[in-house]
Structure formats: structure tokens, C-alpha cells
Design brief:
The chain is mainly alpha-helical. The chain is 41% helix and 8% strand. The chain contains 19 helices and 10 strands. α4 runs antiparallel to α5 and α6 crosses α7. The C terminus is likely disordered.
């Protein structure tokens, strides 16, 4: 018994010399077994005071095989008696914790339950986790040391203090009390993977905290999931979309279902329905009855006129919707860059491209403002002067008997300049469409003249079936066979019966860098959420 505290210490040496002069009687034993057997016989010389209990606790810390040591380092649900070799179990648990802390020092998320490299958190929290891993790892390393660790009589408290002192020497003076290191280890103790608990209580518990509203109405929860997942697949999920869905579709549906079998006197409104679920009614700037979808009058200030409670709009506020989405697993995350795998030469892509080119030239381009009509005299002069290719343009005769030639705006560079200056859309509409009865088109004579039927457009007129084609679909639109066929069937070129098309290509539109938000809602169980 030594020192001012008069606590009992037991020192085992190979000789009878004691390095610290005792203040009370000293007992000598030849071996550890004699001491264990004779401690009860020491009797009144050893007090049963609080000091003795402290010394007993220190003595019990000096070996891994003790039950107290097992409880200190193993998870609380582990039973000491269930292990054949509890000492090895404790050492293995400490080694596992040490390995996990070493991973956490390199990558903070390795030491946090449910965290991944994509988990968004503050830099402070990341450094805080790395610091905790550093201290706990050094304390465990000291504890497992064969010469200076627990086997040599060093306590866990001393190991924690040693870790603090050692890191102070290296310039890390963040903490001073060993209790902090012990508290950090206790946070890891009950986790099977020896990780720190996640700050998100939902992730830490591993359970989804279902809002009480959806506990009351399970079918509403499934409807909420279905609608939100569908919007997330299209990257259109937002709090506003879900606010409108819940208040103007889901709530009216639940109210209608509640009132279905009730007599008229017992039916309730949406307001009373929400009040019964402890939701506060919020007054909207517009008066809207969610049940009959009627709009109320709104004054110039955007404020609704005074109405009865039953006519005011019943809504669950946006903050509640936002909380629901978070609790149900949807995450508000920063948009990340993605990679694109080019499949330009894939057989399916090549086949689609070939099909699209046919549709573009024979179905889309003829209906766009991409054409220029020139008198045949001027067209011949342009061909003679090599301003346009000799085979460019399609000749036709107007209903007034004027001979004309229709060119594409790309047939001559000057066409594009003139059309951009004189027209709104960079060209005129084509006047080379033929509208005929479908039965005439299906004849053998017409089939021999056509190169493709991709641009055919069928429609009904006065109970008869008609088909519209463009002159570019003919094998030789300037040939005598086409002209003869048109004369025999009284056909003349004219504009399309369909509305014009305006097309944008990647070289004709502006891509805005910030056309989308920097953050977006992600789907449940999405890898990017964690």
C-alpha cells in the first residue's frame, strides 16, 4: 500500500526488493498462485474500501483472459462463457478494430458505417473521423504490444494516455484526456465491422423511418414510391412535383375513398381529413378546392378572398414533403460528371442511322423551309455558269403555266445568303408535293416510277383515302414518264397538306451549361445517394 491515496498495489518481482518504499505492511509470496490462494487469508490487513476496489479493477485489467477485459473490448451482445478461448477473441477483435482504423486514416469513409466515397459531408467531419481513427489505432497498438502492453501490466487507460502523449510529440495536440479516446473506442465497440456510427440516424439504425402518415395509409406510401421513382427515372424528380402530386391527387383520392361508403351527412372535406391527421391547414394565395378542382377568385395582390374553411385549399406543406422524401431514402445530391460510351459503329446503330437518313431526306426535309423556286430561264443560266450542278433542281409547271425549277438551299452558296436575308426561316416551303388517291398510288405504273415509299403520308378526305408524296421520291423527277403519268391523271404539284417542320441539329442550337440545377433528387437505393 503506497502513496497518499493509500491504494493497494501488488508488485511481483524475482527478489524481495521493492522499488517503491511501502507505507504499510508488505506481503511476500513465492509465486502468483500462492498470492491468488492467499489473498482471502490476508484478512483485515487489506481494507475493503473503495481504494481496494480500484486496485482490484486495475489488477483485472492486466490480462486479456479476464471477464472484465472481455466486457471492456468485445461487443455487448457477446457472452464470455460462450467462448472457448476468450483471450484470443479479444485479441482478434482488437486487431480487427486496428485494421479498420488504419483504413479510416487513409480514407475516412472506410471507418464510418454506411459511408462510401460518394457520401457528401463536410471536410471538418472527414478530418474528425481520421483523427479518431489515429488515436484509437495508437492506443490499441500499445495495448497489444507484448513488452509494454496489457500482458506486462499496462492498463487500457494508460494505453489511451500513451497514444495522446505520443501524438503530442508528433505535433497532434488535439485532446488531453484519455477518457476521450476510451469514449471513441466505445462508439466502435458494438459495431460488427468495428466502424464509427453514421451521423445519419436512419443509416445508423439500418431502418427506414416511415412517416406516420404512410403508416396510417400503406397504399399511399406505395403510390408515393411509384410516382417518385417514375420521375427519378426521367430526372424530373423535385419537391414541387411531389407537392402537387400529394395535395392534388393523393389526398383527394384518400378523401374520396374514405367517403365512399359513408352517408352524405358523415362525409368530410379534405381540410377536415388533414386536420384529423394532425396536419395544419395552410392558406394558399389561390383558392382551390382539391376535391372538385374549381378555382376561386384572386384579387390583384394575389391574395384569396375570404371563404369558408371548407373552400380553402388544404395542403401538406413543402417542408413536410421534403422531409418525407429524405426519410424514404431519396437524396438531394450534387450532379456528378458521367462518361459516355460511343457506339457509332455498332450494327444496330448503323442500321438505325441508315433508316434515319431515308426518313430525313424523304419525310422531314421536304416539309421544312429549305427550298428555293427559280424561273426555268434563270435556272438554265445558272447551270450554264456552273453556279449550280447540272443535275440539281426539279422542273415543274405552275397552275398559271409558268415553268419553274425548285432547288435545295444547299445547291448554291448564294441561295443560303439570299434566303437568310429575305425569309424568316432561311428558305421557302417546297411546292413539289403530289396528292392522289391511294388506289392510284398502288398501281403498277406508279410503283415503277417511285424509288422509295418512306415519305408517303396517308390521310382521309371526304371519306376517301389519299396519299401525299414528294417529287424527290421519284427515280427521275424530271423524266418524261413522270410528266406523262401526271398528265394522264390530272395531277399537279402543290404545297403539302401538313404543317411545316422546323428542325434543330447539334450545329444549329445553343447548349447552355447551367440549363439544369447543380443538385438533383436521386432515386432510392441509388449508388450516388450514399
Amino acid at each position: 500500500r503506497h502513496g497518499e491515496t493509500k491504494q493497494w498495489y501488488f508488485l511481483f518481482t524475482k527478489n524481495e526488493r521493492c522499488p517503491l518504499q511501502p507505507t504499510h505492511t508488505t506481503f511476500y509470496f513465492s509465486n502468483i498462485r500462492d498470492f491468488v490462494d492467499d489473498v482471502p487469508n490476508i484478512g483485515n490487513n487489506i481494507s475493503s474500501s473503495r481504494e481496494q476496489k480500484k486496485s482490484d479493477a486495475i489488477r483485472n485489467e492486466s490480462t486479456f483472459a479476464q471477464k472484465e477485459t472481455f466486457k471492456k473490448f468485445m461487443p455487448l451482445d457477446c457472452v464470455f462463457e460462450a467462448y472457448d478461448n476468450p483471450e484470443e477473441a479479444v485479441k482478434e477483435r482488437l486487431a480487427q478494430t486496428k485494421r479498420m482504423c488504419e483504413k479510416g486514416i487513409r480514407h475516412w469513409y472506410e471507418a464510418v458505417q454506411g459511408a462510401t466515397a460518394g457520401t457528401e459531408t463536410t471536410t471538418y467531419y472527414q478530418k474528425y473521423i481520421e483523427m479518431k481513427c489515429l488515436y484509437v489505432r495508437n492506443a490499441i497498438e500499445r495495448l497489444l504490444d507484448e513488452t509494454e502492453g496489457m500482458e506486462s501490466g499496462t492498463t487500457w487507460t494508460q494505453c489511451c494516455q500513451h497514444a495522446i502523449d505520443k501524438l503530442k510529440e508528433a505535433g497532434f495536440g488535439y485532446i488531453d484526456c484519455e477518457r476521450t479516446v476510451r469514449k471513441w473506442y466505445n462508439q466502435i465497440q458494438n459495431n460488427e465491422e468495428a466502424r464509427f456510427p453514421n451521423p445519419d440516424p436512419q443509416i445508423a439504425s439500418g431502418e427506414v423511418a416511415i412517416p406516420p402518415f404512410f403508416v396510417e395509409f400503406p397504399e399511399a406510401l406505395q403510390a408515393f414510391y411509384n410516382h417518385a421513382d417514375a420521375l427519378a427515372d426521367k430526372d424530373e424528380l423535385s419537391c414541387e412535383e411531389m407537392f402537387d402530386y400529394v395535395n392534388y391527387k393523393l389526398i383527394p383520392y384518400l378523401v374520396k375513398k374514405h367517403n365512399k361508403d359513408l352517408p352524405e351527412a358523415e362525409k368530410i372535406t379534405a381540410v377536415n381529413f388533414l386536420l384529423g391527421l394532425n396536419f395544419l391547414r395552410r392558406k394558399s394565395k389561390t383558392i382551390h378546392d382539391a376535391e372538385n378542382n374549381e378555382e376561386g377568385e384572386v384579387d390583384n395582390n394575389g391574395e384569396g378572398e375570404e371563404e369558408d374553411d371548407d373552400t380553402l385549399e388544404p395542403t401538406i406543406c413543402r417542408k413536410t414533403i421534403n422531409n418525407w422524401m429524405t426519410k424514404l431514402g431519396y437524396g438531394w445530391k450534387r450532379r456528378v460528371k458521367t462518361s459516355y460510351n460511343s457506339t457509332h459503329e455498332h450494327p444496330i446503330t448503323k442500321a438505325y442511322r441508315a433508316d434515319f437518313i431515308l426518313r430525313y431526306f424523304y419525310k422531314y426535309e421536304p416539309r421544312a423551309h429549305r427550298w428555293v423556286q427559280v424561273a426555268k430561264v434563270d435556272a438554265d443560266r445558272m447551270r450554264q455558269n456552273k453556279n449550280v450542278p447540272n443535275d440539281a433542281g426539279i422542273e415543274y409547271t405552275t397552275t398559271n403555266g409558268n415553268q419553274m425549277v425548285e432547288f435545295h438551299v444547299d445547291d448554291c452558296q448564294s441561295f443560303g445568303i439570299i434566303m437568310d436575308r429575305d425569309t424568316l426561316f432561311g428558305g421557302h416551303l417546297s411546292e413539289l408535293f403530289l396528292n392522289m388517291k391511294t388506289s392510284l398510288l398502288e398501281g403498277d405504273a406508279m410503283k415503277d416510277l417511285l424509288e422509295t415509299d418512306v415519305g408517303n403520308y396517308k390521310y382521309e378526305l371526304n371519306g376517301e383515302s389519299y396519299t401525299e408524296i414528294h417529287a424527290s421520291q421519284f427515280k427521275d423527277p424530271n423524266g418524261d414518264e413522270v410528266k406523262q403519268f401526271m398528265n394522264n391523271n390530272n395531277l399537279v404539284y402543290d404545297r403539302s397538306v401538313r404543317v411545316p417542320l422546323i428542325m434543330w441539329g447539334q450545329d444549329e442550337c445553343i447548349f447552355k451549361q447551367y440549363i439544369t440545377f447543380m443538385h438533383h433528387w436521386v432515386k432510392r437505393d441509388d449508388d450516388t445517394k450514399r
